[in-house]
Design brief:
Strand content: over 45%
Number of strands: 8
Low-confidence stretches: 3-22, 122-154
Helix content: 10-25%
Shape: globular
């Protein structure tokens, strides 16, 4: 090894070690909801939550959506969740959004992590990056509006131990549909 290589290697390692850590997409989504009005208070009094940084949705008459998220209990990662949605009705377009589901107590958390949790009956309207959406279903209610992650505001409450908030990321979707979201869950590897 040359003298130059001997000095370069430790310097490179030192530079990498001192570089600031980059937050991942899950941290970014959590930060959005922590800074978005009423949803911020849910972090302090929930048993757990599931955060989906990006859910992609699209449809023409029949539609679908899919996303992957992380599930937390008392702030610690417990597993990975998948969300699948099928809708039928008037719909045209595609959109991307973030979603967080707050689980009020252990009963709601256990129900969600059973692997067969679902809810439905939603209505939303999203235009490019400025959007508004509302959800009401058997599992929870929520609403959001905003032009960016920085300007997103939310309002909602627990219903049957679950509260749902969404933040529009982009796209254009018109819909008046009936459908449901179904969630799967896999515990984190220990």
């Amino acid at each position: 090894m040359t003298t130059r290589a001997r000095w370069l290697s430790p310097l490179l390692l030192l530079a990498l070690a001192s570089a600031p850590a980059r937050a991942d997409k899950y941290d970014d989504a959590i930060k959005t909801f922590r800074n978005a009005g009423e949803s911020a208070s849910f972090f302090e009094n929930c048993y757990g939550y599931a955060v989906f940084p990006t859910i992609g949705k699209g449809g023409i008459g029949i539609g679908g959506a899919r996303g992957t998220g992380h599930v937390y209990a008392h702030g610690a990662l417990t597993g990975v969740a998948t969300m699948t949605q099928v809708t039928v009705g008037f719909q045209l377009g595609g959109q991307a959004f973030s979603q967080i589901i707050f689980l009020q107590d252990k009963r709601a958390f256990d129900e969600f992590t059973s692997g067969s949790f679902e809810f439905g009956a939603q209505a939303s309207a999203v235009a490019i990056t400025a959007g508004a959406s509302a959800e009401a279903g058997t599992g929870g209610t929520g609403a959001s509006a905003g032009t960016s992650a920085k300007n997103t505001t939310t309002a909602g409450s627990y219903q049957k131990g679950v509260a749902v908030f969404t933040a529009a990321k982009g796209g254009l979707m018109y819909e008046a549909t009936i459908g449901g979201q179904k969630f799967g869950y896999k515990p984190a590897k220990k």
